[in-house]
Write a structure and sequence with these properties.
With about 300 residues, the chain is an alpha/beta fold. The protein has ten helices and twelve strands. It binds (2E)-4-fluoro-3-methylbut-2-en-1-yl trihydrogen diphosphate (10D) and iron/sulfur cluster.
Length: about 300
């Protein structure tokens, strides 16, 4: 019974940056730090910060005037930024630079009066934040989640049109949607491929490799983590028995009765400690030591934190 680890897995550069920003803010300001939304979608990370006194809120109105607020890695809308400024909050912006890149594109599209389509999951904070960068009274931004949604769009087929995407989507499904969009709107412009980020792409490709040499896959990631959910979906699509877990505590021994080769991966917001705990548990119930790792190039991307948050 073998353990095989996906590579890359776990924290991406945007998540590492957001976490370091809050850790340093706690040391530098020595005051209550408020975070708009969960900094990243992982229960272990959020609980660890809660224990250090960080307060997570969904609405700016729930933060006292003149406090410190961190915007989560998923980003916020322009309206949210304005509300924070109005309350005289000190803003520490932990939005991933790759999400901010999409914000800027959407804002440009809005300023240039170009009707825009956004591919993403309704209700997800990144989607709310990005769509909230389109502020145009004459034109609209339309959210679509699937190929079926394209038929419901009320847009003239010869109209000037842009599209953008959420960063954590399924690569395969998004390609289908973009193809269908291009068929219906031949003039549509968008990013060269899509706005899906390097970390999402690499983790989905690593999972596909893992599925070729395993019969069971565990995805470590919280239920509200879009990129982790996409990994679980992809695992299931390959036909391999795939389960998403918050931690080793969720593992049921009955899942593993016939397992010979178990694959482990982790979403971009899941810390390595959770992977190590799963390995420890699997070894205890008879899996091999040490685990093997599929070989891929190491991710080298690093996003710098703002200068005022550097703590030495
Ligand atoms: O739900 P999600 O995949 O967008 O977020 P999570 O916090 O799990 O992972 C980091 C990804 C971000 C911040 C979106 F770019
Ligand atoms: Fe940034 Fe991608 Fe990580 Fe999201 S998943 S925080 S876009 S690097």
């Amino acid at each position: 019974m073998n353990i095989i680890l996906a590579n890359p897995r776990g924290f991406c550069a945007g998540v590492k940056r957001a976490i370091l920003m809050v850790e340093n803010a706690l040391k530098i300001y020595k005051k209550t730090i408020y975070v708009k939304h969960e900094l990243v979608h992982n229960q272990y990370v959020i609980e660890t910060f809660r224990k250090k006194g960080v307060i997570f809120v969904e609405e700016i109105k729930d933060i006292p005037n003149n406090s410190i607020v961190v915007f989560s890695a998923h980003g916020v809308s322009k309206a949210t930024k304005k509300k924070a400024i109005k309350k005289n909050l000190t803003i520490l912006n932990a939005t991933c630079p790759l999400v901010e890149k999409v914000h800027l594109e959407v804002e440009k599209s809005s300023k240039n009066n170009i009707e825009t389509i956004f591919i993403g999951h309704k209700g997800h904070p990144e989607v709310i934040g990005t769509i909230g960068h389109y502020e145009n009274k004459k034109r609209k931004i339309h959210l679509i989640e699937s190929v079926q949604d394209i038929n419901k769009l009320n847009i003239k087929s010869n109209q000037k049109l842009n599209f953008f995407t959420q960063t954590t989507l399924s690569i395969k499904n998004t390609q289908f949607i973009i193809l269908a969009l291009k068929n219906k709107f031949p003039n549509i412009s968008g990013p060269k491929k899509e706005d899906i980020c390097y970390a999402t792409t690499n983790r989905q490709n690593a999972l596909l490799k893992l599925s070729k040499i395993t019969d069971t896959i565990l995805v470590i990631g919280s239920k509200n983590s879009s990129n982790s959910n996409r990994l679980t979906e992809l695992g299931k699509e390959t036909g391999i028995f795939t389960k998403q877990i918050e931690s080793f505590l969720d593992i049921k021994e009955e899942w593993l009765k016939k397992t010979k080769n178990i694959g482990i991966t982790a979403g971009a917001s899941a810390p390595d400690i959770l992977v190590q705990e799963v390995i420890k548990y699997l070894k205890k119930i008879g899996f091999n030591n040490p685990p093997q790792e599929i070989l891929n190039d190491k991710e080298k991307k690093i996003f710098k934190i703002p200068k005022n948050l550097i703590y030495t």
